[in-house]
## 1
Amino acid sequence: MLKDLEKRLDRYMVDRVPFLSRTQIQRLIEEEAITVNGRVPKSSTKLRKGDRIVATLPPPPSGAIAPEDIPLDVIFEDNAIIVVNKPAGLIVHPARSHKSGTLVNALAWRFKYISGGELSKVGEEYARPGIVHRLDKFTSGAIVSAKNDTAHWRLGKQFEMRRTDKRYLALVHGHPERDVENIDFPLGKHPLIKEKYAVRFDDTGKASVTIARVRERYMTKRGAKYALVELELKTGRTHQIRVHMSYLGTSIVGDDMYGGKHSSERDFDGESDAIFFARQALHATTLGIRHPMTEEPMMFTAPIAADLARAISLLRAATCALGIDPVVIAPGTTIDLAAAGL
């Protein structure tokens, strides 16, 4: 501030951010999204010369998302959040090359015609209202979206502060060297390929930590090795699991961007030569959060898709046919494989 103002913080912010109402500004202050001199203020705080205001604001509103009748597998829904088991192939939100056919369009339809409510306005400017976190297009599994702004801010803070518990299952090529691996390699944009990410030990790399725990090891009659791995995300970088597993030499099945191979049933000792696994075998299986309105701990399990279940079933049978028990008892695992459809 360049001079003393006889004005409350909330009134000053309304003047500076005209697309937000005073009530919305007050809610942001309550959610600690606005600070004065590094401290959490009150809406009534009077501003003085030299005060430094830092605010994390939603972008200005834009056009509405077109509702589209796309079936959803809903795990949980109330008036604040919705948790969906996203299928592989469904993009989370509209982007430059995909203006429709996304999870956001599907949610807009559901809220308008089935369950009521609406997506939060946070992120609306970039066509991703209500989207708190994301999954890659070809990664399936649990994803939570917010149905009001307060729920969005609170959930967003949980993800930012790493207070959530995100566990994935992946089918990988090869056998990891250790049953439990703490993968701590910084990630950044690939130096040559625009769409890819890579382990970067220069100043572009961001801290990235994944804990990999082997659940089952498989062997086919041709000697091919595979493993089912439970992955715990400690950070949430783009393509984090895919890059980390590739860097260790155990690329995810189907993930041809990072060294995985498309697979037929015969690759898993099945009968058909037709390719049936052509996407990364990665599934966001469990998601633990605190409900943004009640603070109640909640844990959601998303049953795995039929293609991944089929691949694992074939590999279990192939391994047992060789007289090998595929099960690995690794400390720290939490995913109930039976509850996940395995």
## 2
Amino acid sequence: MGVQVGVRLADGTASMNRLELKIGCLVVSILIWIQVASHATVEQSTKLPLKVVGLGEELTLEGSVIPEEVEVRLEGSKLSLVMHNLFQRYIGEVRLNLWDRGPGPEFTYELSRDDVYTDLRVVDIHPADVRGLRIDRMVYHMLPVRQQNTGTLRAGLAFLEPATLKPDSVLVSGPSRFFREHATVVADPVDFSKIKESQRLPVKLQSPNRHLKLATSQVSLDLRVAALEERTLPNVPVVALVDAGRPQVGVSPPLVDVMVRGVRDSVLALDSRRFLVTVSVGSLAEGIYQLPGQIDHPPWLDIVGLDPPEFQVIVGHPSVSLDSLLRPRAQGKTDRGIGDE
């Protein structure tokens, strides 16, 4: 038993020694390769980042298609090039030097070896130019926010006030050429049919152009809604509107019931004395007419109807028969009054 344990220990020790030997050989090989690679000179193509320098204050290249990298053929240490390609180790960059350029039309920048900043020797650059560049002025404008919502409030609800965006304008920045006249920022639509109660909703904004940047990505939409109520306002006076110098006019009935619909609290606070129904007589000739009533009302209030919806209007003192009283004419059928027939 003791002999077997000793043999196993000896085998384990030998295995460990062999593993350590292998690791040691690998390390030595890597060190030798590094030593050789650091002194070996090779020519190789690699990609270097392209950076813009010297652009004037409040100027921008936004809207130009600028490559992120440029392929450059370099000659230098094999180790430096391998470390760059495998581990993105910095070995240099290509610079677009625009210190002497201002706003203007599109142009092409010709790359030269002097634009490559590196300790290695530059053999070639591809592509040899950067096309489609345009320098523009950076401008800032406050643009109004526009929103086109969808749907309508469910039955029994109404807005206490129009839906309001806060803020209703945002700061937008970018090249001057991308700002159009009367430009607006569009807010994502909200479906009013899904609104159940008053609330404040965050709404995302869409830039008028992909090259223009918004100072904020969203605004708030304030929605104040309340339950609706229907009510009848009795005995509202009816007044005839007559042009100056026209004959005396009589209206029957002189009072009317007005059916309204609106926000519950506001409707319940209404008083019949605040309303007036009018009948437009104008310059109608003497006669008997059947005319509709009209009523002015605040925008938050809906008029469901009038009872009665039409009124008998007697203009002047026409000679009439019982049949004429029972069948008054409607406005517009004739300019003559009944008494003129």
## 3
Amino acid sequence: MLGLVALILAGLNVVVMRSSVVGALAEITQATDRIAGGDVKSEVPHLHRYDEIGRLARAVQNFRDAVARIFELEEIELGTAHARDAAMTERDRFNDKYLAKKWQLSAAIDSMPQGLIMLDSKAAVVAMNANYPRIYDLPETIQAGSTLEEILQHRVKSGLFSGDVAKYVAAVRERIAKREPAANEISLNDGRTIKIYERPMDGGGWVSVQEDVTEQRQRERILEGMERFLATIIENVTEGIIAKDARNQRYVFVNKAAEKMIGMSRGEIIGKTARELFSAEAAELIERRDQQLLAQKQQLEPIIDTIDNPTRGRRVISARRVQIGGASEESHMFVTMVEDRTEKMVAAA
């Protein structure tokens, strides 16, 4: 009897062991397989047990958490790699744009017809374009890092500077310190005229643009001489020359002959309209002739009119008219060349 009971208990023990241990181990094994397969969100069974099965379950849970952390770190590393690659691509693209802009700027500066030089606060050369050394015939040794004093010493040797080098450098450094822009012209010993523009730069530096304006000044002198020559002729011809601003109909010029014909000084005439100087009838005639000129562009054939002069009475005049400029230009003028024929008409009668 006792043997039968023992046998039954042994059987029950096997069943219990199979259900409580072997089954639990199988479930934990399955959970481990799922975790190994990448399912790091899988639940681990039997965590609430306090026996060996519970300790094993908690060990598997720790394994699951470690795998999950590894996956998380791999994702972060992958994201970081993508971000790093994207940043490197953006940096390369920015560098390409920067180098292209730098090349364009350098090419633009070197293609300037003017000479350009940049100085730091101590009057040392930061940069200069190709035309600057050409203007002053400087050697190749003058480049970034050279000083303004060295440049001037070379100009002294070549006869292109005759001033006091120390005083000139001191004056430039003072302007740099005060950040005062400047513009002036210098005459070189070889007859050239150089226009110099100086401006402060951010950070205490200085930029100077220097332009050879010799031909421009020569043309200006020739033009000024021609203007004086033409002014002398216009002022002394026997015909009256009258110029009027076509936009507002105000007189802007009369020569001596016109002053005499009208009987007023140019100070009394210039800036006024015909209606301010002449009778209503005479002003209407003048305005009508102006409208005809506006339509015809020019009236080179003389037109004979009888007009009431405010100081000399009725006069017979012959007038030719031309337009200078166009309606959209500031210099749009009507020019009238007037001859007083009153005396000739009286003599002929």
## 4
Amino acid sequence: MGADAASSSKANHTPEGHPAIPAAKTGVLLVNLGTPDTPEAGAVRRYLREFLSDERIVDLPRAIWLPVLYGIILNVRPAATARNYAKIWRQESNESPLRYYTREQAEKLAASFEGVNVDWAMRYGNPSIASRLDAMKADGCERILVIPLYPQYSATTTASVADAVFDAVKKMRWQPAIRMAPAFHDHPAYVEALAAVTRRHLETLDFAPERVILSYHGLPQRYFDLGDPYHCHCAKTSRLLRGKMGWTEEFAPLAFQSKFGREKWLEPATDETIKELGRQGVKKLAVIMPGFMADCIETLEEIDIAGRETFMEAGGEAFTAIPCLNATPEAISMLEMIARRETAGWV
């Protein structure tokens, strides 16, 4: 052993020949839902297969669900979904908006939360939770905070992220310490961020909305009946945002979007609410989607494109979809508050 090597070994208090160990670090992993790699049917099929195979998403007996999934849905839905992704795909970076904004959130959080390894992953698709946890562990992260980017808790989202995290670490010989950040549906910084983004957007309009729909991703009613707190979290976020904005419940009704299948889902449905408001004579409408931390196919295509068409066909004259928090300064400040709170004692 040379003098330099001997000195290094002594300084690190490791015996000669010991495997290299990186300096201990703390990490933060942001996780959002997921996205196909390309707006093509094959990529969408792979993504939907992973997404809809998760028992947290569809909890029907496998003997009933899998034949439907593989025999019908994966043969019919990918082409139509791919066309919708193509409408909102970011051509300049060749990625979905969700991937773009989630990466930007991680990069900006890393810049503001110095000394912590910040990374990002998707629950379904790429980059996977397992691949990023492996990379963080290899980089020396012995303590990792996971922040599911779902403000309102649901077993279908937050719990599914936890499942994937612990499935990944149980394969590791040397596991990092793991913390899961809780839902932040009533965090003052989250509500203030929603209000700030909303005010900025409304100031850019040449019309004043007569109604603002608060639209959240839907959930089967049965899940709520079994104890999922998602509806309650959505209702509380809505109440707090209305209070911050000075809105009444009549002016800013709660609704749920993205239903699929025949099972009864949470109501009222966003598309039906849009249609009904148009029929009632409302001419100017805005929709905000507080449950989405980043703009994605559900906000940009389902609401801003399809929802707009529905409203105009029902007699509307002006429509706007209020952007999600994305990587705005308010969003990054909120994420930093959560990250610092949840890594207390680590950093």
